[in-house]
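Just scan this pair:

***
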Amino acid sequence: MPNHRLDRRDFLKQSAFGAAGITVVPALSAVEGPALSGAERAALSAVEGPPPAPQAKPRLRFSVVGINHNHINGMSDAVIRGGGEMVAVYAKEPDLVAAFSKRYPQAKVAASEREVLEDTSIQLVLSSGIPDERAPLGVRVMQHGKDYMVDKPGIITLEQLAEVRKVQASTKRIYSICYSERFENRASVKAGDLVKAGAIGKVVQTIGLGPHRITPASRPAWFWDPARYGGIITDIGSHQLDQFLYYTGSTTAEVVAAQVRNVNHPDHPAFQDFGDAMVRGNGGTGYIRLDWFTPDGLPTWGDGRLTILGTDGYIELRKYVDIAGREGGSHLFITDQKAVRYIDCKDVELPYGKLLVDDVLNRTETAMPQAHCFLATELALKAQKQARQSS
């Protein structure tokens, strides 16, 4: 049997390039893989591919404040692809700044947050700071007349959400939470196109699964504290709830039930390593499940999956790995009234960065409606707050 351990650099290349194809789905087979070392696990969490080349004629200037999660690399790359020019970076941690500057040497290292916020030439600020600091920063960004793109969870309490909504409404700035499992995954983008085209009829339900590998030795102290990261549903679940709203077309929704657990981390009793929730919207229903139990045998950090059930068929996404053995990520399977097909999504365009740049320049909402952005987070926060703690 071939070695299916997936190098992160190869994974990114395979996810970004190649010709699309549609084939009949073969029978699934078991996949084995060796356990990963700590260094290999850490490597799988990092973006190692080169950043996109700066455009000759950038359309806007943006900067970065807070880089505590490496999602900032994908976020920055999306804006650069969309026509943004990275001007500056500020973070409190010199080691993080050094690594970021190596990847993005064009960014000046700012002496303070204030230096970035008071630069009137900067139109957009990006952040992947510590989760509890993201919303207060976003408020300051909007109050300085700039738009904001933040890593999820972009807001970790209902009180923060109320303040962000108030300031966003008064300033009319953009507060965009980068739900990267949809925006930066090619299979997710393709699924949206298929749903809009009526390929599976009317969507009835989504099932979103968000498993992650925990790698305890690589985690900072704030990672284990719900007061800092918001809890498992607030953190990971915001991805799945964004997708539920998007694919069902729901503009209103409520939490039906939710629960969280600490199953396997007694040394961190406040931590939550499992959570799930049921939601109901005016366009369909949804179920989400989240966990920190990805085994070392899986050749990537998590087997993120999404099932979209329609009246005339269903779509299944294996976003980051196909355990049947296909290379790379962004795998889409569709079953309709005629056949079962596999769609290779490696050449599907990722439009979020370009659309967000368009929105900043044109004062539009083409990347994501502001109401949708806030509703996805509101659902996550309400599910987290009412979640039953089970043992």
About this structure: The first helix runs from residue 8 to 16. The two ends are 40 Å apart (CA to CA).
